[in-house]
């Protein structure tokens, strides 16, 4: 049996090709290898294309702004309100104070050019237009900043309203030296000023009496492109293909989402269990009349039920309370809004069902419109208001509502966007959800396969299609499939996975089985990755605090086990969960109390902190290889005491609800057991579905040819089989060598149900105090792995694509002044920079000596740190303007600067270096920036110039990710190009170095003298000469 083992990470793929005998007692490693590629996100988790798209959007906005101002200027010139652009009069008119004109213009006559100047200024400063139809569910990294700015806008607009002044009047009347820019206002106050200005000026200017001209001016100033969705990005319903998707703001969607959460709700802690029918019904009734319910509100809703049973709901804990639903449960927003407005008569309202369906749909149609079959746009505010007004009359006529009720209804805003399911599909799901079925079970569980067959006969079906190799993204269907993934990390990993697997198939043929393991980070969203990082930082902080506490209490050099025991002691509130004994600090180290696995490790295979607690030694020995329930079930009174005690330990600084749930479990759920062998996450599912295409698609009955195993299992097998010693001498896994991914892949390839059973038996024997040996897949696996690892040539993805930022963002002005030094001629440039971003050395490069003295003195008087000195700003003079930006002088070699439309910019990254040998046998090189490489493409020249001046000979070019091989010398082996310096130095790193400890920076000349040769390493580590 040939097996491909694959270890997938966010920047790596380790692979192993293993031949196992039919009885699985003999094996052979045919190939081990590693593929390394760049992360598809920035270090902060932002997708690489997000910055590029943001910059493109900024360029687009600047272009549209210029076009809008140019067209408006032409309109004002044609009406006689402005002189021709660039004429002598133009500069004179533009020098007028626009704020003074706007102040006077709402009270008295303005001359034509004065009016034009005021209108032109309004068009440039039309301020923020409030977000249309914002989605409360949308989460944004900038939400806090946006909320702060919104507060500033509301405060300013309120003060403006109380003063009775227009925006222009308010700014014009500010004292000299007080900034007029940077004010947070709204589009509405600018529109109000515009209307007042035209009303006052209309008697004095005949053109303004023409309604069409007034409309043209208003359109030119305030017109804004509509917000839209591209329909092709909405996806499609997999249960009823082609059916329209259900809007999130519909009653059906809101009901589905509410029932999904309620059906997943369970009580945790000492009395862990699902909700019963009475409890579930009470929560649904309450959620149907309110937008959301806090967790104290949930407990209050259940209190009457528990009181009737002689119990209390005050101490209840819920499984969702500490997860994504920390704020509480969301109700049916549509139902809650309808019942609130209709009032007491809602329950008996005859047209209840019709109004539920009609109102969200009608409001949506009033606010949105289809543009062909490609887009959905948000209608203009005036059009939305008009359509909603018409809707109110229809509500009165068709549903018998009062004027007041109709007015309240047309003010409602429901969530925007669409479900990933069609309306027809959700109508079929709803009765099952109302009966308590879990939504995930309905959509995916094998138990409901027959139900899905009956209700969704047209859903996506197996096609029987099979591929000899994974298809290329150039294939239209494959490109469409990848476009649906929407996660850049998953897309990058799948592209590299395709290259590795297809090359392995070319070498060894199609495997009988593929096993894969995925890193936890693969497939996670930015928010999820941030939460994971935050949790890791918090855990690291807790461990550090525990270490300090232990040292202060006399444990001079605490071990990892000591720290873990301390954390478990704090988590359990310093008592034994099983006996209730209080545990003193000294008791931790006497052997009286031990770290115990709640679910026996031999059964759960779980050695994580989440499966550990403290236990008195005699109880631990007596409990043995059993669940807490199995140990205490003969004494129900004690069992109830244990559950109650553990329930009280749950809290923010105590035990997690998940751990408390483990204590109370009466059996280990099959779902948990399955998760120990298989990963069911999004990225894992996508990887499996992609690889499964190598075999016929015949549906659920198809044999499982792609298995996904978890790192929790493979880590223990790797250590138990002694494979940690292949790259390390201390028996611990090393991550400093990329080849550890290949060892992981070997373990993955060999992990099956039988190996897991042997692992469980081995762990049980160890827990019983014996010293067993874990059976290895075959006797010589360690020796075979060592030999195969020594042959690995780590493959790195080469980055030769001519794309990326042409230059750095800062634009410099050319002074034309040069300075000659020993290292070359430097040109002086100037640029502007906000004072709060200055460094101490940059203060000394401020061009204006007076400004330099003022800033230097200000920083000295405010603590000496420029980064903290500018909470307020210095002024040029006592009554002069604030100094917020300063002009700096810097110098740079002109050859390292890129000419741009408005000055110069640093070239930024280098694309490659070209290496030649001259006719006198000397090495010369030319570093080619990305700016120059793109210029060559534009001129239709080769990106790499192989022609050397004066008859020299081209040797090779080197780009980031290229591989160099040295046969001899101290650099013997394979090296990867990390970067190229403008001075000609090449930053190299050994191909298998994962933590950057082997960095060298030779020149191109020394590389050639030491025998460096460029080679090509394909995705599976095959080496070929390269002469490009």
TrEMBL record:
GO MF annotations, alphabetized: DNA binding; endonuclease activity; hydrolase activity; metal ion binding; RNA binding
Cofactor(s) it depends on: Mg(2+)
Annotated region described as Disordered, given as residue ranges: 131-161, 525-558
GO biological process: defense response to virus
Pfam assignment, any one: HNH_4
Classification via InterPro entries: Cas9, HNH_CAS9, HNH_nuc, RNaseH_sf, RuvC_III
Keyword field: Antiviral defense, DNA-binding, Endonuclease, Hydrolase, Magnesium, Manganese, Metal-binding, Nuclease, RNA-binding
Cited Gene3D superfamilies: Ribonuclease H-like superfamily/Ribonuclease H
Compositionally biased intervals (Basic and acidic residues): 131-155, 525-548
Coiled coil: none
Keyword match Magnesium: yes
Entry EC no(s): 3.1.-.-
Limits of the HNH Cas9-type domain: 525-677
Keyword NADP appears in the UniProt entry: no
Protein name stated in the entry: CRISPR-associated endonuclease Cas9
Organism: freshwater sediment metagenome
Protein encoded by which gene: cas9
